[in-house]
């Protein structure tokens, strides 16, 4: 995801979200105005909808779904007194071996269709997610779901796993109305028009594909409503950041989800705002195609890793909103460690390694590099990689492709695929060991996101051991993951650019804005209130 001045008026702006979210409370000639229209929040967003099915969803529609559906638990921001807070479960516990997890459900909760939240509903939702969910892999440890009574859910696992973490996932852990699940099973197109079956604070009031999503408050929401809450959220799907900026500055939008990072500094000296930086769980990764020459030689991969201008990439690509990665585990996400080694630009070392591999002066090497045309940060920093490679005698043919085209090419046949694939990635839930490290680099005959096509039994064994130890012996798992990260550094099947940070610019007239790294791609409208309403 990415980001994007505001006119001098009585409108208050706020910049937050996955890259920046600028919010203007209702404009009026009086700062204390309480017009009825102030309860309507107008949002310009890039978030399109690939599916409204909350089970199958695994894309940008999460921007809306996270306000319509709820999981059993929410993960708290780093540094909180408790790691989780109740959502649809008010309490939970596990057996000492972490093979049995029991969740006690909140009473008085109803789905938007009026049906009560019960253990049977949770069981049906979890089983659907495990069977055919867009993120079904997170439920791999699940063996059975039992319902000893209407408010108790018992999950039994085939191997120890942190089910509290899995149950708080942004993808694949929504609890859905049994009626909606049954309707979708009978008719796979059931959700297509914008129907929903959630328990969350908002319902889907209106949907026009590729254009508009209107969320309406659910009057019977279990957590209630404040007098200064936004009861309606009108989302206009606007891919062009320039248009979003025009909508924002003209008052057509109160929120814009994609603003130029270079414009954030304009708000820093504006007394109407507070500006901070929010860590995210996203990072930029590059894959070397290890299946063919010259990238099947670790020395060539190491040489290219030494050639990359990491600091310049953060300055130019991220406009300073990022920190150099230590492997594919973002800072603040398990199992990140400050001791994980990282490459720094060293052109002399790069040339030395190329010569040792039989390519003195670059040896006339030419590599094909692809990146997602939709990603503005990649468009800014990829030319820096091309220029750096040229300094060691390596030619980079850079091609911008729509992500789906890039993805299809990479998945078709490694032998004819790109040499270097650039990717923005984030974990499905806050465990980059079971997700990033595994999804991106674990051996597989049919790689998912492993677009280096790298196979390494030592790495695989470390990952498998760490995954089994995560729930029962965290320190041991950290040690094993640390060894796996060192292996990635040594063998260099990919390179790791920077962990993404987002600017958070909050108007002093808006309350309730906070940063949670685990859900940094989302905004929770129910938390946002209007000061002075």
From TrEMBL:
Main location: other
Pfam families reported in the protein's UniProt record: SBP_bac_5
Signal peptide (from-to): 1-31
Domain Solute-binding protein family: 84-445
GO cellular component term, pick one: periplasmic space
GO biological process, one term: peptide transport
Keyword match Transport: yes
GO molecular function: peptide transmembrane transporter activity
Compartment annotation: Cell envelope
Coiled coil start-end: none
Keywords: Signal, Transport
Keyword Transcription on entry: no
Similarity comment text for this entry: Belongs to the bacterial solute-binding protein 5 family.
The protein's name: Peptide/nickel transport system substrate-binding protein
